[in-house]
Write a structure and sequence with these properties.
It contains five helices and six strands. It is of the alpha+beta class and 129 residues long.
């Protein structure tokens, strides 16, 4: 089980508690319902479009459903060993274009950190290094 959260425009994220894969995909469903809806405030837009899942403070994915054909996913996996000690974390920011791609990333992340990282590597990393 991983932990789920909803983002907020101001202040800390809203903790939703533990979820299994089915609960995570239900969370995706809940946010997907607003994928192409216009929002009147930043707070409303963030609440409806941004959420994530985590194992701990240093192992998470954060999802932003901008529209039904543009989704961003951010992941900052730890680097192992000596490379990790020198360079620290590496941020991955990918752009997805379908619900199926998003479901695949969430499923991979729930399988393991490594599976999530490998799934993220299938897409160009848009993060600024």
């Amino acid at each position: 089980m991983l932990q789920a959260y909803n983002c907020r425009a101001q202040g800390p994220a809203e903790e939703l508690g533990p979820v299994d894969l089915a609960g995570a995909l239900a969370q995706v469903d809940a946010h997907w319902a607003f994928a192409d809806e216009d929002c009147e405030t930043e707070e409303e837009a963030v609440a409806k479009s941004m959420f994530g899942f985590y194992r701990d403070d240093e192992d998470f994915i954060e999802i932003n459903i901008i529209s039904s054909d543009f989704i961003t996913v951010r992941h900052e996996p730890e680097r192992d060993g000596y490379i990790g000690q020198i360079f620290g974390r590496r941020e991955w920011l990918i752009h997805l274009h379908t619900r199926e791609e998003l479901d695949a990333i969430v499923t991979a992340y729930f399988t393991s950190t490594q599976a999530g990282y490998e799934a993220m590597q299938r897409y160009p990393n848009e993060a600024i290094q």
